[in-house]
């Protein structure tokens, strides 16, 4: 909508009056357009989770498929339901799993924090840069995302190895005499996660910071706020939506990360994604892998809901502003 | 205003009273239309008749329902209740692509991926018109809006004023029975707006197509329209010619929205068929009004006096029994052709008076802190009850 | 206003160095004569030669490209519908669940989605006989499912930026809704469709975890082959592959950027011309 006084936008944007074009598609057309992607997502996204849930209550057996059926006809008469909590007891009984969960949360949390500490000033710097180079800088943030994730993680192996580039460099300038043990430790995992997910932190931060009216800061300074205080009192609170989104986008996938701990972490770097992978591919214990997945989901439900709530709010806001 | 428009106004007035022999046929009949969005009632039981050849304005502030009403005429919204007839046919539930009306959007809504010619041709192609006819009509339309030389440009290669004219040409190309215009001049700067107003009226009169214009600008409504409907909170308050709307507003809201006005509130003292008298605490004398109203004595009513209809003088008026008061000039706003005087009455009430600047002298006859008498003729007051 | 605080500039410098130095090192060492990745042994193309003789890698690359093209196309189709639903359909029964299913795949850990979709295939096969074994089809379906979420977001945000009165205008001029979509909406959002497709293509090409779950024994994709070789340690051949991937991605992005920049310039010039004409009136 262009400016002008007409009160139309408010009336027009009323939730019930969305898109006349589609409302008039007719019930058949509209229904079909909804049905196709809806059906796809139900079949290949939602239903699979229910199956994971179901199989997590089954028992491991050797065979195809490698789990016992949950519901069975006995003598063609009785419907027998066998729910086994064996996988869950196993899960919570074994310290290894509990430790893996907490370690995953810890690693994800710390990495998210570092990504925020590095990403925020970068996003701020880009948002405040000259318009002419802003897009170029943004492109530079996104570019690694278009190259391979696997290769970017792989790149760190050569750098962090005992006889790798970082150690060679540090020894060459004389900071250390012996190579530091970085690869195959948790530190390498932190570095890997921050590196791989940094663009996901920067982009939402940038988009809130860029939208922010610079005159707000100027007004704060005009009213006697020192720049640093103006930042704390104006910029930071206003960028909270970006911080939340960025942190969610890093934290949630980081909890379940597999490639990074597998390639950069050591044998003792326990992360839940790795455990699930091992249960499934090495032990072929599908019920256990499913139980691990269900437990991981439970941990992630709160942050995922937070994220979706945020998405919904952004959507509503975008609609309001037209 | 052209003579043609004036005679149409007279004809409409006679038709509405049912006394003409040449009764006009109603083109748009809106019958008891209500539109609600959830709990919010955007348009509340509106009835309205618009005649062939009119340039009709829907005037009101933000959120008054004027745009919703226009969108119901176009078919983008369906009334919650009530009927809409166009040329005698019930259009209430007819989709937009089957209605004999076209719309010019506030944002112009030009198709960005099509040239000017393709934009104008779009509607004609939907009707399946033969190619050479489409080409001919497009050329005709572009000539009409003086854009014949820009046919191959894309919308983003045009200025705001040019885009507005493309939007007009596109909406007129199908020769609709009614053209709906949503804030047609809203996106133009002031100078361009004044010129475009005249162009729009000329085109309308030449083509004889009925225009329904939504606007929030009372000056625009006043200069362009044959008739105006003022809307507030989903209801129509008054439908009249601009002249009648200004001189005889039927409510306080209309009086204040359509031009500026001084409103004096007070009890009705005398209520005779030919005149009324209102007691007004803001003035030292009562207000005498030269027309009757239907209200009971003692009820609170409002007397409305336009600022340019008030006289200002250092001498007391000859007859000081009614319609006068004394005060001090508090502020003078020089506006070129006229000056606005703000007079603080002895009661503390501020009154606005507009006076023509008929001489060039930089020293006005009246100046700050002068003690003055304000007064007006009893024929220049209008009483409204709400 | 630009803020040239030294703190921000050094943060940007450090951040970009952090992002790019590892990639640059990869590229440099792909031209290394020595087999030792960390010791420079002279300039050479020999790892590129070896790369192009590795039948397994080339075969996997072919499979990956095929899957990426198919799933990107499917994801664009489905994602466009979903984006349209989200941006234009207003309220309908089950909208909340739908929007949840759109955003969830983007944040869900891949090990979970991968495991889930694999189990789905197993159950489906048990019940219906389809899909018969796992391979290119199942990988394509899995990739389509997570890529369509990204396409949906791209299309949805483009649609909500679009002035919807343009669609109303077309309808007002007599076009039926289906025609409005194909004549007006689709051409206008075409650039978003292209970027959605490219995004889906890249995501598919790059995916390891979901693919590993959905893949059968005969359908190893490029990331799977790379992963199993990387697990054994750093090899210069992978460096060469990485250089090619980075090079192609950079080329594509720089080209896209250049085209967009030029269009923008043209648009600006046209705008100025129109304004100049208006002033001349």
TrEMBL record, chain B:
EC number(s) from the headed UniProt entry: 7.6.2.11
Pfam families attached to this UniProt entry: ABC_tran, TOBE_2
Gene Ontology CC: ATP-binding cassette (ABC) transporter complex
Domain of life: Bacteria
Listed CDD domains: ABC_PotA_N (cd03300)
Domain spans labelled ABC transporter: 28-258
Coiled coil: none
Keyword Zinc tagged: no
Annotated Gene3D superfamilies: 2.40.50.100, P-loop containing nucleotide triphosphate hydrolases
Top EC class of this enzyme: translocase
Record's catalysed reaction(s): ATP + H2O + polyamine-[polyamine-binding protein]Side 1 = ADP + phosphate + polyamineSide 2 + [polyamine-binding protein]Side 1
One MF term in the entry's GO annotations: ATP hydrolysis activity
InterPro entries for the chain: AAA+_ATPase (IPR003593), ABC_SmlMolc_Importer (IPR050093), ABC_transporter-like_ATP-bd (IPR003439), ABC_transporter-like_CS (IPR017871), Mo/tungstate-bd_C_term_dom (IPR008995), P-loop_NTPase (IPR027417), PotA-like (IPR005893), PotA_ATP-bd (IPR017879)
Keyword set, alphabetical order: ATP-binding, Cell inner membrane, Cell membrane, Membrane, Nucleotide-binding, Translocase, Transport
Chain's role: Part of the ABC transporter complex PotABCD involved in spermidine/putrescine import. Responsible for energy coupling to the transport system.
Subunit structure: The complex is composed of two ATP-binding proteins (PotA), two transmembrane proteins (PotB and PotC) and a solute-binding protein (PotD).
Similarity section: Belongs to the ABC transporter superfamily. Spermidine/putrescine importer (TC 3.A.1.11.1) family.
Annotated protein name in UniProt: Spermidine/putrescine import ATP-binding protein PotA
Gene designation: potA
From TrEMBL, chain C:
Ranges in coiled-coil conformation: none
PROSITE patterns the UniProt entry points to: ABC_TM1
GO cellular component, one term: plasma membrane
Domain ABC transmembrane type-1, first and last residues per copy: 61-256
Protein name: Putrescine transport system permease protein
Keywords: Cell membrane, Membrane, Transmembrane, Transmembrane helix, Transport
Family to which this protein belongs: Belongs to the binding-protein-dependent transport system permease family. CysTW subfamily.
Presence of the UniProt keyword Cell membrane in the record: yes
Transmembrane segments: 7-31, 63-85, 97-124, 136-155, 180-203, 238-259
Highest rank taxon of the organism: Bacteria
Membrane topology classification: Multi-pass membrane protein
GO biological processes: transmembrane transport
Principal subcellular localisation of the protein: membrane
Organism: Novispirillum itersonii
Taxonomic lineage from the root: Bacteria, Pseudomonadati, Pseudomonadota, Alphaproteobacteria, Rhodospirillales
Location(s), subcellular: Cell membrane
């Amino acid at each position: 909508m262009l400016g002008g006084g007409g009160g139309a936008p408010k009336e027009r944007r009323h939730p019930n009056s969305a898109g006349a074009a589609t409302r008039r598609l007719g019930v058949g057309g509209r229904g079909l357009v909804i049905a196709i992607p809806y059906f796809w997502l139900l079949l290949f996204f939602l239903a699979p989770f229910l199956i994971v849930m179901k199989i997590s209550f089954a028992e491991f057996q050797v065979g195809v498929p490698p789990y016992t059926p949950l519901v069975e006809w006995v003598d063609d008469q009785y419907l027998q339901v066998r729910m086994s909590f064996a996988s869950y007891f196993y899960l919570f009984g074994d310290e290894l799993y509990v430790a893996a969960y907490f370690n995953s949360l810890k690693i994800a949390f710390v990495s998210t924090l570092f990504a925020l500490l590095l990403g925020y000033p970068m996003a701020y710097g880009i948002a405040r840069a000259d318009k002419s180079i802003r897009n170029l800088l943004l492109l530079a943030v996104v570019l690694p995302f278009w190259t391979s994730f696997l290769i970017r993680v792989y790149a760190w192996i050569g750098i962090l190895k005992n006889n790798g580039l970082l150690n060679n460099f540090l020894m060459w300038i004389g900071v250390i005499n012996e190579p530091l043990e970085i690869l195959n430790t948790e530190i390498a995992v932190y570095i890997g996660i921050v590196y791989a997910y940094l663009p996901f932190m920067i982009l939402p931060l940038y988009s809130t910071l860029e939208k922010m009216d610079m005159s707000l800061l100027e007004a704060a300074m005009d009213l006697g706020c020192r720049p640093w205080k103006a930042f704390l009192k104006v910029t930071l609170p206003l960028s909270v939506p970006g911080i939340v989104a960025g942190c969610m986008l890093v934290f949630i996938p980081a909890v379940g990360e597999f490639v990074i701990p597998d390639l950069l972490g050591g044998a003792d770097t326990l992360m839940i994604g790795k455990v699930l992978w091992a249960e499934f591919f090495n032990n072929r214990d599908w019920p256990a892998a499913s139980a691990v997945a269900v437990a991981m989901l439970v941990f992630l439900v709160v942050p995922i809901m937070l994220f979706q709530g945020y998405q919904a709010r952004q959507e509503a806001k975008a609609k309001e502003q037209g | 205003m052209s003579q043609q428009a004036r005679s149409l106004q007279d004809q409409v007035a006679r038709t509405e009273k049912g006394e003409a022999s040449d009764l006009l046929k109603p083109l748009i009949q809106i019958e008891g239309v209500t539109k609600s969005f959830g709990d919010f009632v955007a348009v509340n039981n509106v009835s309205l008749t618009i005649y062939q050849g009119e340039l009709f304005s829907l005037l009101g502030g933000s959120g008054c329902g004027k745009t919703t009403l226009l969108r119901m005429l176009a078919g983008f919204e369906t009334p919650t209740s009530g009927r809409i007839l166009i040329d005698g046919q019930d259009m209430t539930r007819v989709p937009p692509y089957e209605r004999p009306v076209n719309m010019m959007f506030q944002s112009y809504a030009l198709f960005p991926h099509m040239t000017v010619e393709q934009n104008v041709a779009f509607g004609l192609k939907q009707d399946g018109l033969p190619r050479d006819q489409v080409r001919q009509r497009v050329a005709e339309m572009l000539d009409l809006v003086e854009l014949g030389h820009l046919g191959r440009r894309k919308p983003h290669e045009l200025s705001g004023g040019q885009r507005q004219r493309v939007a007009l040409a596109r909406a007129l190309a199908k020769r609709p029975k009614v053209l709906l215009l949503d804030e047609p001049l809203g996106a133009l700067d002031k100078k361009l707006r004044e010129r475009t107003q005249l162009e729009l009226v000329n085109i309308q009169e030449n083509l004889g197509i009925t225009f329904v214009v939504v606007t929030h600008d009372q000056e625009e409504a006043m200069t362009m329209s044959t008739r105006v409907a003022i809307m507030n909170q989903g209801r129509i308050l008054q439908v009249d010619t601009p002249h009648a709307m200004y001189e005889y507003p039927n409510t306080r809201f209309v009086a204040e929205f359509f031009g500026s006005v001084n409103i004096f509130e007070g009890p009705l003292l005398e209520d005779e068929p030919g005149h009324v008298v209102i007691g007004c605490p803001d003035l030292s004398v009562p207000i005498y009004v030269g027309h009757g109203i239907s209200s009971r004595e003692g009820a609170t009513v409002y007397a409305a006096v336009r600022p340019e209809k008030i006289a200002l003088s250092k001498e007391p008026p000859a007859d000081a029994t009614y319609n006068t008061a004394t005060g001090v000039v508090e502020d003078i706003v020089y506006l070129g052709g006229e000056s606005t005087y703000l007079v603080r009455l002895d009661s503390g009430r501020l009154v606005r008076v507009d006076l023509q600047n008929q001489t060039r002298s930089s020293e006005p006859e009246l100046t700050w802190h002068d003690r003055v008498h304000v007064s007006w003729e009893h024929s220049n007051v209008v009483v409204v009850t709400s | 206003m630009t803020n040239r605080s030294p703190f921000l500039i050094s943060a940007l410098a450090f951040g970009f160095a952090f992002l790019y130095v590892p990639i640059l090192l990869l590229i440099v060492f792909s031209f290394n004569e020595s087999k030792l990745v960390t010791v420079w042994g002279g300039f050479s193309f020999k790892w590129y030669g070896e790369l192009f003789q590795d039948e397994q890698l080339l075969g996997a690359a072919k499979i990956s490209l095929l899957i990426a093209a198919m799933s990107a196309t499917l994801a664009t189709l489905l994602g466009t519908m979903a984006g349209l639903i989200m941006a234009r359909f207003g309220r309908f029964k089950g909208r909340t669940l739908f929007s949840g299913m759109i955003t969830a795949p983007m944040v869900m850990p891949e090990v979970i989605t991968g495991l889930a979709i694999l189990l789905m295939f197993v159950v489906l096969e048990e019940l219906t006989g389809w899909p018969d074994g796992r391979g290119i089809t199942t990988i394509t379906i899995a990739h389509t499912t997570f890529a369509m979420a990204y396409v949906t977001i791209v299309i949805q945000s483009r649609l909500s930026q679009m002035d919807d009165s343009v669609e109303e205008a077309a309808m007002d001029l007599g076009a039926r809704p289906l025609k409005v979509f194909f004549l007006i909406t689709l051409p206008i959002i075409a650039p978003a469709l292209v970027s959605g497709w490219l995004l889906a293509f890249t995501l598919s090409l790059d995916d390891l975890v979901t693919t590993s779950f959905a893949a059968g024994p005969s359908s190893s994709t490029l990331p799977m082959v790379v992963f199993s070789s990387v697990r054994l340690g750093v090899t210069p051949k992978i460096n060469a592959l990485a250089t090619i991937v980075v090079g192609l991605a950079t080329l594509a992005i720089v080209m896209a950027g250049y085209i967009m920049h030029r269009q923008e310039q043209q648009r600006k010039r046209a705008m100025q011309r129109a304004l100049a004409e208006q002033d001349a009136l």
